[in-house]
Amino acid sequence: IVLSGGDDRVWKTWGFPDGNILLTGEGHTDWLSGCCFRPSGTQLATSSGDTTVRVWDLSRRGCTLTLRGHSRAVRACSWHSCGDLVASASTDGTSKIWDVNSERCRYTLRGHEESVNSIEFLPFSSTALTSSADKTLSLWDVRTVSRL
């Protein structure tokens, strides 16, 4: 299965190698910048120009959670390997770590001088990597909200 999202505000799952559309989801009010599967494969997260991250349940075929807190477009999202945390990177210069169980922002990562364009968790760790338009990369310990 391949996952995609785009300017049409819709995410799609595609069967591979046939290329047939299996599922679609709508709900964002602006372009999609990122989409990724939860490690369990039962849900996915999407990030958007509408400043939100959404969590979708594939069995229910709908959005189950909208995460709000960025003041500008969200450029990327990523699941932690535990499956309970989603990270987001925004053009507002911050990244956020969201707890999907409590449905709240657990941490806000501040320190980049410009747009944060990507965020990824290192596998099986509390470390996240961000990249920014300020031409820097940062490693973060998300437990202490500090740069490494």
Automatic annotation (TrEMBL):
InterPro entries: WD-F-box_domain-protein, WD40/YVTN_repeat-like_dom_sf, WD40_PAC1, WD40_repeat_CS, WD40_repeat_dom_sf, WD40_rpt. WD repeats lie at residues 25-66, 67-108, 109-148. Signal peptide: none annotated. One of its GO terms (biological process) is axoneme assembly. It comes from the Eukaryota. It holds the Pfam family WD40. The keyword Membrane does not apply. Keywords: Repeat, WD repeat. One of its GO terms (cellular component) is axonemal central apparatus. This is SPG16 protein. It comes from Donacobius atricapilla.
